[in-house]
């Protein structure tokens, strides 16, 4: 979990039978109740994920045309 803001440490509570997918972040303080699935790549930033739920937070994939060239100023 991500539990330190540079000044204070916060607590993350994880219930029983919880599946946390790869590359997920739990930004404390959060509570994950029993029987929860957290999808891969999900960032949980606050509150409570209730019993029996699926938590998923991913943005839709988008492609920015020619971004590399604009960023580095070359083509």
List key phrases describing it:
mainly beta, 8% helix, 8 strands, 75 residues, UDP N-Acetylglucosamine Acyltransferase, domain 1, three-stranded parallel β-sheet
Please explain how this structure is put together.
The chain has one helix and eight strands, in the order E-E-E-E-E-E-E-E-H. It is 8% helix and 25% strand. It starts with 11 loop residues before the first strand and ends with a helix. With 75 residues, the protein is mostly beta strands. The chain has a three-stranded parallel sheet, with no helix packed on it. Strands 2-5-8 form a three-stranded parallel sheet, with no helix packed on it. The radius of gyration is 17 Å and the shape is elongated. The mean pLDDT is 93. It has a single domain, classed as 3 Solenoid (UDP N-Acetylglucosamine Acyltransferase, domain 1), CATH 2.160.10.10.
Give a quick precis of the structure:
The chain has 75 residues and is mostly beta strands. It has one helix spanning 67-72, and strands at 12-14, 19-20, 25-26, 30-32, 37-38, 43-44, 47-49, 54-55. The longest helix has 6 residues, at 67-72.
């Amino acid at each position: 979990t991500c539990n330190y803001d540079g000044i204070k440490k916060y607590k993350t509570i994880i219930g029983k039978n919880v599946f946390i997918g790869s590359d997920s972040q739990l930004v404390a303080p959060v509570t994950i109740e029993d029987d929860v699935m957290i999808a891969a790549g999900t960032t949980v930033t606050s509150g409570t994920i209730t019993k029996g739920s699926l938590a998923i937070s991913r943005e839709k994939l988008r492609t920015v045309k020619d971004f590399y060239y604009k960023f580095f100023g070359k083509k």
